[in-house]
Amino acid sequence: MRKENSTNTINEQFLFQVCELNSAISMVSGRWKCQIVFSISQGCNRFHLLKKKLPKISEQVLSRQLKELETHAILVKKEIPETVPVGIEYLLTNKGLDLVPILDGLCHWGKLYAGGKEISARLT
């Protein structure tokens, strides 16, 4: 459990106050959150479908990451009443849908610059 008056907590709170970027990155930080959001945007909106799409993620981690994304209102859980037992599907909120093109842009940026690849400067 994290101490509320620890230096790390105080510094984090300060950074969140001075720059919204830090808050935004915090919402999607985590090894799997971006992949989960992108997968849901592509139609993998059930737990077993996400697990199949991301086979290296444990069920415990997937469950925790989904709960955190729900806490940040990036996705919502919706019951599917006509299933027995009642199934759950995950839907992106408007906030989550707005995140998808940003993730696409980051993915493109990562393809260009990740792994120490040197790309010549673009002139605009």
TrEMBL record:
GO terms for MF: DNA binding
HTH hxlR-type domain sequence ranges: 19-118
Lineage, uppermost ranks: Bacteria, Pseudomonadati, Bacteroidota, Sphingobacteriia, Sphingobacteriales
Record-given protein name: HxlR family transcriptional regulator
Pfam families associated with the record: HxlR
Keywords, alphabetical: DNA-binding, Transcription, Transcription regulation
Species assigned in the record: Anseongella ginsenosidimutans
Domain of life (superkingdom): Bacteria
